[in-house]
């Protein structure tokens, strides 16, 4: 700008800003990552701060920002980007676009920005799909590796800070309301797909993981060898004792009638004298 190269501060730097930068650089599919904290080293001078792009601008200069050279950042707070090249194989933390074969970061799904260029990452059906949970590779239907379907894609949960409270919520989502316990790390083998959640903080009273404290979707520092598992159970059925009869209960047997005094004790019995010589 004005004949001078400089950096962008990472304050409020987002995927929308990264997409505008990459497209301006000639990468029509936009960015795969928006980076902060001087990932590629400190930059100076800082020319832009508080950049707030919508994502559809053709130039970074079209986005709102604090003003040229106006900032409150140190050189260690500069932003960076990784732009998308067309690829045929995507990693587990990426989404493969349907028609362009490009790979974008999994957390770019359903963010209202057409990162793929073909709208496949913003597919309405995908983005409106509900959060589902299942247990995989366990010995029965009550236990297994925890897998979640978010934005139409199945992935796993990291076991960092994963305890009985988190296990209880997951089992509740499966309508298994008995005692629940977390399984040891990797008990049911490694899963596939993105690791959707990490550092869950449930109290145990929630009805869904969406109500628990957690890192943002797909943000983690885990491997699939750390995939969480649970052991659920059905509620313990309490044995009910027979209810006592009340005065309003219907009387249906002769014994009941006798006990209530409605019939003589010898009702229905043939009365004979105690004389063995008399024939019956």
UniProtKB/TrEMBL annotation:
GO terms for molecular function: serine-type peptidase activity. It holds the Pfam family SRCR. The keyword rRNA-binding does not apply. It comes from the Eukaryota. GO terms for cellular component: membrane. Residues 228-250 are annotated as: Disordered. Residues 1-84, 133-233 form the SRCR domain. Residues 236-248 have a biased composition (Basic and acidic residues). CDD domains: LDLa. GO terms for biological process: proteolysis. InterPro entries: LDL_receptor-like_sf, LDLR_class-A_CS, LDrepeatLR_classA_rpt, SRCR, SRCR-like_dom_sf. Disulfide bonds join 9-73, 22-83, 53-63, 158-222, 171-232, 202-212. Keywords: Disulfide bond, Glycoprotein, Hydrolase, Protease, Receptor, Repeat, Serine protease, Signal. This is Scavenger 4. It comes from Daphnia arenata.
């Amino acid at each position: 700008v004005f004949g001078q190269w400089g950096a962008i501060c990472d304050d409020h730097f987002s995927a929308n800003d990264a997409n505008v930068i990459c497209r301006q650089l000639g990468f029509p599919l936009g960015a795969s990552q928006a980076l902060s904290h001087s990932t590629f080293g400190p930059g100076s001078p800082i020319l832009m701060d508080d950049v707030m792009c919508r994502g559809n601008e053709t130039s970074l200069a079209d986005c709102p920002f604090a003003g040229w050279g106006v900032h409150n950042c140190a050189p260690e707070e500069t932003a960076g980007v990784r732009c998308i090249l067309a690829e045929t194989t995507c990693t587990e933390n990426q989404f493969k676009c349907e028609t362009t074969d490009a790979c974008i970061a999994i957390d770019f799904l359903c963010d209202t920005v057409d990162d793929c260029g073909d709208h496949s990452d913003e597919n309405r059906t995908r983005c409106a799909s509900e959060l589902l949970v299942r247990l995989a590779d366990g010995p029965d239907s009550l236990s297994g590796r925890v897998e979640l379907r978010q934005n139409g894609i199945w992935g796993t949960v990291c076991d960092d800070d994963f305890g009985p409270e988190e296990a209880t919520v997951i089992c509740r989502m499966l309508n298994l309301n008995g005692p629940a316990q977390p399984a040891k790390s990797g008990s049911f083998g490694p899963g596939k797909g993105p690791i959707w959640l990490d550092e869950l903080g449930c109290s145990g009273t929630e009805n869904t993981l969406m109500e628990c404290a957690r890192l943002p979707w797909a943000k983690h520092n885990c491997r699939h060898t750390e995939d969480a598992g649970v052991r659920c159970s059905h509620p313990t059925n309490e044995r009910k004792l027979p209810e006592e009869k009340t005065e309003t209960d219907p009387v249906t047997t002769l014994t009941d009638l006798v006990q209530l005094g409605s019939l003589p004790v010898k009702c229905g019995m043939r009365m004979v004298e105690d004389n063995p010589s008399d024939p019956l």
